[in-house]
Amino acid sequence: MRVLFVCLGNICRSPTAEGVLRQKLREAGLEGRIQVDSAGTGDWHVGKAPDSRTRQAALRRGYDLSALRARQVVAADFQRFDLVLAMDQNNLAHLQRLQPQGESAELDLFLRRYQLTLDEVPDPYYGGEEGFEQVLDLLEQACDALLIELRGRL
User: Fold this and answer.
1) Tell me: the pLDDT tens digits for 48-92?
2) Residue 49 gets which letter from DSSP?
3) Counting Cβ atoms within 10 Å, is residue 154 exposed (0-12), middle (13-18) or buried (19+)?
4) How many angstroms from the chain centroid is the CA of residue 5?
5) Which residues span the domain enclosing 97?
6) Which CATH number do you get for residue 115?
7) How far is CA 130 from CA 11, 107, 122, in A?
8) Whole-number pLDDT of residue 127
9) Which residues are catalytically annotated?
10) Average pLDDT of span 10-36
11) How many domains does the chain have?
């Protein structure tokens, strides 16, 4: 099973989701059975580490994102991944346009999939620290629900 998280620049929301899910998979003993990655629809930050505020907020909760580097989503990702989860409606629309005809990757809006209080993960980039904490709260909840789904798929 292979999961790809996608946001705009791949420096805040999607790498956080990747780090949270990786940790939850380790704790559940499923690390080697499920592949996790993240990407952005934009190319501004390719090769860069996650935003320092993202890394700091994640580290306070025990998630180390320091090894992650931003990349841009490509059409081949729809072959490589089984589940592609967008952080917001704009990124979902971009992915729908990018997905090649006939590719079987399942594409969805991450929070909406699990019927959480919000449909979209808000972008914390232009806000303060509380935005990064809110993103972590939402992603931890959604990753818990995703973990249940992944266990059922295995």
Assistant:
1) 999 999 999 999 999 999 999 999 999 999 999 999 999 999 999
2) P
3) exposed
4) 3
5) 2-153
6) 3.40.50.2300
7) 17, 29, 11
8) 87
9) 7, 13, 123
10) 97
11) 1
